């Protein structure tokens, strides 16, 4: 069974074709600059790298181009569209209704449209991608997998904000959490690697990339996470501020003549380690600048590590202990210095990192010392495989 995994952004589309008989990625690609000048599709497979430069007006054109690349006589990996058994779509926000992935129908799409106001940058292109696939691929079964679904197991004490309760009742303002597909995948993968039943484990999962979040996973269920009503809450990120004093936005509006739109742009796109360092949102650039004596770059890194360290301590307290800590995503998987800095000073919790083991990049590996009471692992995430697995499961 071959599953096509689609992840639509506002002007981009990522995809993977996965053979679920052996869970191997047959091809993966990226369509960039949809609706813009210079649009391009890039696909990678065993046949090498394949590029198509042509006008891509909308997401329907993008889906058509993806299918064209997959069946291309010279560079394709399948003989026809009929080999695609199902399509799995990543959707950012599923609101409160869906705690699991679900087969696409009109009722599901209608609810996703209702949730669009909670994720205006993400859900609309997700829906466009689903509609485009329906139009082009006819009766091919489709499944949506939500970033928020894994976190629907959070208790009320974790997801209700200390504001007027009517705002939750009337407008569903609450913590939702994101990166759920990644946190679920790496937690289950870790239990498998450790040879443990996930129901017996207390795990803190650190998904660290340009967007970053931590999740407390107890008995295989998310009991808390750092991102909230939107992906802006939590720790400092590449360009996002993370949690700040709620009065700062109102102060910027009333005293500094910012508009609400300018504040949102500031907090989402000009803050985080970019805002502090003034260098970049790319941690490699910031680390280079810090090594050359840039004090603001070093401060940005220190704040990033400090926030993560504090959150690890908080989640250990809330779960009544921790058995394992996971580092995943771009920075988590490829940043030995980041991992060590985030855990330095947490020896009192029984966390000890082995400096030699920690030199690993992008590979599944234990990096804790032999006498560490808490095991620490690097676990590469694979959200696409998680989406494909749920898609297969819902076809049975």
From TrEMBL:
Its cofactor is Mg(2+); Mn(2+). Its EC number is 2.7.2.1. The keyword Kinase applies. SUPFAM superfamilies: Actin-like ATPase domain (SSF53067). Mg(2+). Can also accept Mn(2+). One of its GO terms (molecular function) is kinase activity. Pathway: Metabolic intermediate biosynthesis; acetyl-CoA biosynthesis; acetyl-CoA from acetate: step 1/2. The record marks 179, 240 as: Transition state stabilizer. Its main location: cytoplasm. The active site is at residue 147. Keywords: ATP-binding, Cytoplasm, Kinase, Magnesium, Metal-binding, Nucleotide-binding, Transferase. Mg(2+) binds at residues 7, 383. Gene3D superfamilies: 3.30.420.40. Substrate binds at residue 90. Homodimer. Catalyzes the formation of acetyl phosphate from acetate and ATP. Can also catalyze the reverse reaction. This is Acetate kinase. It comes from Clostridium sardiniense (Clostridium absonum).
């Amino acid at each position: 069974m071959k599953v096509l995994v689609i992840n639509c952004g506002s002007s981009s589309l990522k995809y993977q074709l996965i053979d679920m008989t052996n869970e191997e990625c047959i091809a993966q690609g990226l369509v960039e600059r949809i609706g813009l000048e210079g649009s391009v599709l890039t696909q990678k497979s065993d046949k090498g790298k394949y590029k198509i430069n042509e006008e891509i007006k909308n997401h329907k054109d993008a889906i058509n181009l993806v299918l064209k690349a997959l069946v291309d006589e010279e560079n394709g990996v399948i003989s026809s569209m009929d080999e695609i058994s199902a399509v799995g779509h990543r959707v950012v926000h599923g609101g409160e209704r869906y705690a699991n992935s679900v087969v696409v129908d009109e009722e599901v799409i209608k609810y996703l449209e209702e949730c669009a106001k909670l994720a205006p940058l993400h859900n609309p292109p997700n829906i466009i991608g689903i509609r485009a696939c329906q139009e082009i691929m006819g009766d091919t079964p489709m499944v949506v997998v939500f970033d928020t679904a894994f976190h629907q197991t959070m208790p009320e004490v974790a997801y209700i904000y200390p504001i007027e309760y009517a705002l939750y009742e009337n407008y569903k303002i609450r913590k939702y959490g994101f990166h759920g597909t990644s946190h679920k995948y790496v937690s289950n993968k870790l239990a498998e690697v450790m040879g443990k039943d996930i129901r017996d484990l207390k795990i803190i999962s650190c998904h660290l990339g340009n967007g970053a979040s931590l999740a407390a996973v107890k008995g295989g269920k998310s009991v808390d996470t750092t991102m909230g009503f939107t992906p802006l809450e939590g720790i400092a990120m590449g360009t996002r501020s993370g949690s700040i004093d709620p009065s700062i936005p109102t102060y910027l509006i009333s005293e500094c003549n910012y508009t609400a739109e300018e504040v949102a742009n500031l907090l989402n796109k000009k803050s985080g380690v970019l805002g502090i360092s003034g260098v970049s949102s790319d941690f490699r650039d910031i680390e280079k600048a810090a090594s050359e004596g840039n004090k603001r770059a070093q401060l940005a890194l220190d704040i990033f590590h400090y926030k993560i360290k504090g959150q690890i301590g908080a989640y250990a307290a809330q779960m009544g202990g921790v058995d394992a800590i996971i580092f995943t995503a771009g920075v988590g998987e490829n940043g030995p210095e980041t991992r060590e800095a985030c855990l330095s000073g947490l020896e009192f919790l029984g966390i000890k990192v082995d400096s030699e083991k920690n030199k690993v990049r992008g590979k599944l590996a234990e990096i804790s010392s032999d006498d560490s009471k808490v095991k620490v692992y690097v676990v590469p995430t694979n959200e696409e495989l998680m989406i494909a697995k749920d898609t297969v499961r819902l076809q049975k």
